[in-house]
């Protein structure tokens, strides 16, 4: 792995390079497809009017439909369908006539003992997602389904139902609308998997389909992993569950791929099974094997009718789609002069702060400088008005303050000092641009004090400049503009 | 006809009398409750008689009338509800142990509509557990008896609702019909019984058996009463996604149109099995309509005979899923056990009766991996064939006539140990559940033992009014026969 991971927030990162070295271990490659569940950002549930809200008191957002009471009937939430369509169109899917089916199985947090889910006719089919480095991952489908309730098993070991003393069930989450996005098994590298999840999350947020918070469970990733000799047929795969962060996606599939390679090399079979990723020991563990899998007895949900959005609705949704992250990166790149897959552009769009950067750039005329500051200090976009940052970057490009001083002012603005006014902060800190005559006399003094260094610098030893600049900085107590000092030195040399 | 001071039994007459202040709802109710007191012990039509609630409601209706208000088209009409329809705060049992003393927190849409129309709910009627049966013997609370002969069954599964009208405990009642559960007991009890077009009446609050087949409809003394009730309970309900986006059915205005010009189809390849007394009545019905100016046409429905088989895969398949929610977790009865799976098993073993278990197993099997295509999938194909057959038949005929039940009411216990014989009771009613078309049973004289016979009128979807038009003509013919005079 050559790509150095770059951490976004706590555990999210993009690949820094646009090209991944091919992941290979003992002559095997990994074959990975991801199934991502996202909770849609609707006001109400998929089939009832109860609020779709995270974090409320248990069993407060419930109703007869949510609880699966006898005689209750589902009514499809139109907004959920529209959000699913938005997502599908953003993923270049065919939005189509679709149906719901019942997936039958018993579990205490599954109120009706069946989940209403789209099965053989999903609303979104056959799309793709392009990663920032241009790698294309196929999307098989993006279908609507309802979430289950949440069980808490008290007593016993490891929070599992088996052996617990009793279980508590919160049905607030039951019936919350989900879209399950199933990728094709196109992923060959842990970095691609992570980039896929990050990019998908950016798209979800951009189109307003979901807040996509992995830490709150509104975005959940399952990975299907197998390994093979490049070009050979697909081998048996395992499904990895409980992958709760972008970082874990990479770790889990890499571990799993290596586990399977070891089995192949030992001549042992890979058994198709569902495995549980354990964040603590960094391993996957058997959850259940295929033989134990439920027979879900899918059949068409007779309480609902066909969902056929039709061309008019589809086109209306398509026309209203906001710019997607890839397009926004292009804009920011061309305006800032940075490459579209540069760290700064990737980060700022990922954080949804590109509009802020562009606004600052519009006012100051320098998008690149705004991008640099916002990349380094994300809080700028949330607490400092664009006009204030524009003033600062103007001061900086006019050499009224140095880059070092500008950084200090940014911190002060974020901290809320002097009403976040960069000029007032600069004045308070005594950051006044030096008279050029004053600077020049400092440069002359430095040359006089270090004749050896000056001689070496004049002889073309670039390293020697450091000592001279350092001396000026010291004399000016850090207030000299490094660029101006360098320029003076060069001018005097010739 | 009734003497002026008598309390009429027909809903149309009760409602008019109450609205015009000629009758009091309280008086009407007392009369019906008196009959309940007298005969309910031997008939057992009800799981629950709501005498107090009904008296309160009747008093409300009367005070509305006294205040010059119109309580609605069913003002003061005592109605009985099959006990698989949710009533807020009132136990709703499906005649099963598994629901325990569960009280729904909401009313079924039909219940709301009846109440809003001024009806007085008098009680919840007995049924075959979860509406699975044709005799009302499969009830956890004991069988209902046929008011015409208490040694015989009332039919099922809505036997309690049929018996309640036949015994004049209620003026009208509601049943649900998944494969004939309104029409067959209506025939056996000598009442009118209607299964409307699928989607004409909201299923919200009807505890599901076979969701794609279930439809609520009325039992009544007359075709007009059934029409009045159906007009009240039909019409779009946004809370039921399968409810048709249409205003309430308009039926009563068509009842006097007569049969002249109506094309009445006779299915030439109808499965045999009707007993001679029933067949004789059916022949007479064709003659009666022909005499009234209808044109009798022959039609073919080759897939009709496969309906029963297809039904006994589709309905149990849906039921196996619909009844999975009775798991002891959130409501109803629970048998405690050391772990969750054992609790499920113990609760469901104890809570469900034999017929319900049989159908859950049938349905689970029919949907299982490796069998689904051969059973459930095939049954769905047959379902389409039947719908196609009907469509072709209705190109030639406006309505079709068949027996509603192959025989008159049979003895209690006769078929209780032979499920297949019991299933055959619904041979003639099942196909229109599969196609979603309406069907109704009209009392048409008597058969063996002087017991009632019903003729079934079938019509294409949303042609309920045409079905009622033919039914009204059959009723008129029968009244003329019985009264021996022509109006």
Describe the structure.
The complex is a heterodimer of chains A (494) and B (487). Chain A is α+β, with helices and mostly antiparallel strands and 494 residues long. Chain A folds into three domains: 5-319, no CATH class; 325-428, no CATH class; 436-493, Arc Repressor Mutant, subunit A. Chain A contains 17 helices and 16 strands. Chain A has helices spanning 64-67, 78-90, 190-206, 246-265, 310-319, 325-336, 343-350, 354-364, 367-376, 379-383, 386-397, 403-415, 422-428, 436-449, 451-458, 464-475, 482-493; strands spanning 5-7, 13-15, 29-39, 94-95, 101-104, 114-117, 124-130, 136-146, 150-154, 166-170, 177-183, 219-228, 238-243, 273-278, 283-289, 299-300. A nine-stranded mixed beta sheet of chain A has the order 4-7-8-11-3-12-13-14-15. In chain A, strands 6-5-16 form a three-stranded antiparallel beta sheet, with no helix packed on it. In chain A, strand 13, helix 4 and strand 14 (273-278) form a beta-alpha-beta unit. In chain A, helix 6 crosses helix 7 and helix 8 (354-364) crosses helix 11. The longest helix of chain A is centred in the middle third of the chain and has 20 residues, at 246-265. The radius of gyration of chain A is 29 Å and the shape is elongated. Chain A starts with a strand and ends with a helix. Residues 1-19 of chain A have low confidence and may be disordered. With 487 residues, chain B is of the alpha/beta class. Chain B has a single domain (11-303, 387-483), classed as Amidase signature (AS) domain (Amidase signature (AS) enzymes, Alpha-Beta Complex). Chain B is built from 15 helices and eleven strands. Chain B has an eleven-stranded mixed beta sheet with strand order 1-3-2-4-6-5-10-11-9-7-8, with helices on both faces. In chain B, helix 9 (307-322) crosses helix 11. The longest helix of chain B has 24 residues, at 373-396. Chain B is globular and about 65 Å long. The mean pLDDT of chain B is 96. Classes of the chains: A alpha+beta (494), B alpha/beta (487). At the A-B interface, loops of A face helix 9 and helix 10 of B.
């Amino acid at each position: 792995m050559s790509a150095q991971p770059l951490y976004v927030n706590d555990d999210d990162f993009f690949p820094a390079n646009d090209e991944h070295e091919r992941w290979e271990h003992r002559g095997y490659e990994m074959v990975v497809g991801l199934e991502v569940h996202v909770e849609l950002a609707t006001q109400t549930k998929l089939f009832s009017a109860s609020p779709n809200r995270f974090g409320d008191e248990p069993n407060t957002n419930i109703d007869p439909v949510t609880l699966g009471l006898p005689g209750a009937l589902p009514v499809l939430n139109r907004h959920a369908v529209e959000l699913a369509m938005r997502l599908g169109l953003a993923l270049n899917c065919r939005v189509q006539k679709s149906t719901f089916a019942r997936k039958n199985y018993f579990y205490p947090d599954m109120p009706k003992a069946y989940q209403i889910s789209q099965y053989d006719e999903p609303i979104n089919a056959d799309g793709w997602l392009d990663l920032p480095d241009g790698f294309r991952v196929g999307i098989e489908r993006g279908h609507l389904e309802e979430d289950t309730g949440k069980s808490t098993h008290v007593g016993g070991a490891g929070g599992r139902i088996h052996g617990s003393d009793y279980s508590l069930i919160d049905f607030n989450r039951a019936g919350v609308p989900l879209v399950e996005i199933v990728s094709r098994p196109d992923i060959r590298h842990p970095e691609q998997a992570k980039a896929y999840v990050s990019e998908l999350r950016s798209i979800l947020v951009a189109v307003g389909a979901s807040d996509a918070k992995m830490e709150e469970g509104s975005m959940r990733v399952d990975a299907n992993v197998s390994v093979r000799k490049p070009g050979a047929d697909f081998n048996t795969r395992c499904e990895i569950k409980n992958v709760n962060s972008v970082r874990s996606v990479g770790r889990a599939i890499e571990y799993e791929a290596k586990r399977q390679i070891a089995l192949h090399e030992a001549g042992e079979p890979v058994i198709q099974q569902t495995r549980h990723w354990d964040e603590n020991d960094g391993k996957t563990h058997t959850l259940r094997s295929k033989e134990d899998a439920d027979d879900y007895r899918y059949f068409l949900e007779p309480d609902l009718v066909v969902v056929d959005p039709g061309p008019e609705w589809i086109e209306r949704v398509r026309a209203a789609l906001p710019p997607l992250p890839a397009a926004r990166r292009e804009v920011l790149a061309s305006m800032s002069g940075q490459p579209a897959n540069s760290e700064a552009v990737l980060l700022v769009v990922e954080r949804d702060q590109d509009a802020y950067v562009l606004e600052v750039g519009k006012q100051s005329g320098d998008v690149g400088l705004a991008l640099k500051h916002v990349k380094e200090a994300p809080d700028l976009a949330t607490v400092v008005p664009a006009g204030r940052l524009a003033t600062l970057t103007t001061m900086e490009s006019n050499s009224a303050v140095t880059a070092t001083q500008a950084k200090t002012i940014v911190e002060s603005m974020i901290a809320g000092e002097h009403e976040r006014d960069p000029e007032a902060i600069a004045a308070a800190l005594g950051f006044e641009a030096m008279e050029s005559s004053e600077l020049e006399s400092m440069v002359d003094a430095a040359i006089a004090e270090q004749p050896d260094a000056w001689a070496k610098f004049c002889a073309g030893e670039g390293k020697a400049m450091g000592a001279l600049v350092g001396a000026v900085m010291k004399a000016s107590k850090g207030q000299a503009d490094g660029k101006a000092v360098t320029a003076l030195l060069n001018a005097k040399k010739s | 006809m009734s003497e002026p001071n008598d309390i009429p039994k027909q809903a149309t007459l009760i409602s008019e009398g109450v609205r015009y202040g000629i009758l009091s709802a309280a008086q009407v109710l007392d009369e019906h409750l008196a009959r309940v007191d007298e005969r309910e012990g031997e008939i057992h039509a009800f799981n629950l008689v709501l005498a107090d609630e009904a008296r309160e409601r009747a008093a409300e209706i009367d005070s509305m009338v006294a205040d010059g208000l119109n309580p609605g088209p069913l003002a003061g009409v005592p109605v009985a509800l099959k006990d698989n329809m949710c009533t807020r705060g009132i136990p709703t049992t499906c005649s099963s142990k598994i629901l325990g003393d569960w009280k729904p927190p909401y009313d079924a849409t039909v219940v709301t509509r009846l109440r809003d129309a001024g009806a007085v709910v008098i009680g919840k009627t007995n049924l075959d557990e979860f509406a699975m049966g044709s005799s009302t013997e499969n009830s956890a609370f004991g069988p209902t008896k046929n008011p015409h002969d208490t040694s015989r069954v009332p039919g099922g599964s809505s036997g309690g609702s049929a018996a309640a009208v036949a015994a004049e405990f209620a003026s009208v009642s509601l049943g649900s019909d998944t494969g004939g559960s309104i029409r067959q007991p209506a025939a056996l009890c000598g009442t009118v019984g209607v299964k409307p077009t699928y989607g004409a009446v909201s299923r919200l609050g009807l505890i599901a058996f076979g969701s794609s087949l279930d439809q609520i409809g009325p039992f009544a003394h007359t075709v007009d009463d059934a029409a009045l009730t159906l007009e009240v309970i039909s019409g779009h309900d946004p809370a039921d996604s399968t409810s048709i986006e249409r205003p309430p059915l308009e039926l009563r205005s068509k009842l006097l149109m007569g049969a002249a010009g109506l094309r009445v189809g006779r299915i030439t390849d109808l499965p045999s099995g009707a007993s001679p007394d029933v067949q004789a009545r059916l022949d007479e019905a064709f003659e009666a309509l022909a005499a009234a100016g209808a044109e009798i046409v022959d039609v073919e429905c080759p897939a009709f005979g496969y309906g029963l088989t297809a039904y006994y895969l589709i309905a149990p398949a849906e039921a196996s899923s619909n009844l999975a929610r009775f798991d002891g977790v959130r409501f109803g009865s629970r048998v405690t056990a050391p772990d969750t799976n054992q609790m499920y098993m113990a609760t469901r073993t104890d809570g469900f009766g034999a017929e319900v278990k049989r159908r859950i197993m049938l349905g689970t099997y029919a949907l299982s991996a490796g069998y689904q295509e051969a059973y459930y999938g095939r049954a769905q194909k047959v379902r389409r064939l039947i719908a196609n057959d009907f469509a072709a038949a209705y190109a030639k005929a406006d309505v079709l006539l068949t027996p509603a039940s192959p025989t008159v009411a049979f003895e209690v216990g006769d078929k209780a140990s032979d499920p297949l014989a019991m299933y055959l009771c619904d041979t003639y009613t099942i196909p229109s559940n599969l196609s979603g078309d309406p069907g109704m049973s009209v009392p048409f004289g008597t058969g063996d033992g002087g017991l009632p016979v019903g003729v079934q009128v079938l019509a294409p979807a949303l042609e309920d009014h045409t079905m009622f038009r033919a039914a009204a003509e059959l009723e008129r013919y029968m009244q003329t026969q019985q009264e021996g005079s022509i109006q």
